[in-house]
Amino acid sequence: MAITKNLTILAARNWGELPEVVSWEVLSQQWRLRSSDLIPIESVIVVVTFLTTAFVMMLYWRRRRMQKPKQAPGKLLSQVVEGFGLTSADIRLLVRVAHQQELPSPITLLLSEATFDHHIHQHVESGHTRAKKRIQSRLDRIRQILFGQRRTGVNR
């Protein structure tokens, strides 16, 4: 009732006196409101649903972004071998060996000389005969750079 009285007072100030009985029909005639001037409830529901969905998706995206690792494994490998002075071709070869040997990361090859030797030997033995010597010489050079020892071939 208080709301109706306040509307009556507000309308009286702005548009003149209203009759004693205030109804929606009277107000709509006084304010010249038509049903086409009002926002349909379906439109309101669509807009609110869209905004809610967008907000939830934004929250989900932010949470996923926060959970991602800050550094990719490839970038970590590059940073590790950068100090050794390996070329990008050497890094690609290590990645190829790790992938062929089903290692979790090429960094596994850098953990110890024994690990390196084992997986390199397996990789070279599974390769083509023509390429074995060329790959073995590249891997010997990488071993010398990484572990500081000169060895020819892998003793198994």
Structural description of this entry:
- The structure is a single chain.
- The chain has 156 residues and is mostly helical.
- The protein folds into two domains: 66 residues, no CATH class; 75 residues, no CATH class.
- Helix content is 67%, strand content 0%.
- It is built from seven helices and no strands.
- The radius of gyration is 38 Å and the shape is rod-shaped.
Mean pLDDT: 76
- Count of DSSP H/I helices: 7
How many distinct domains? Answer: 2
Beta strand % = under 5%
Structure keywords:
156 residues; mainly alpha; 2 domains
Overview in brief:
This protein is mostly helical. It is 67% helix and 0% strand. The protein has helices at 2-15, 24-31, 41-67, 73-82, 88-100, 113-125, 129-147.
Chain-wise SSE layout:
Blueprint: H1 2-15, H2 24-31, H3 41-67, H4 73-82, H5 88-100, H6 113-125, H7 129-147
Helix pairs in contact: 6-7
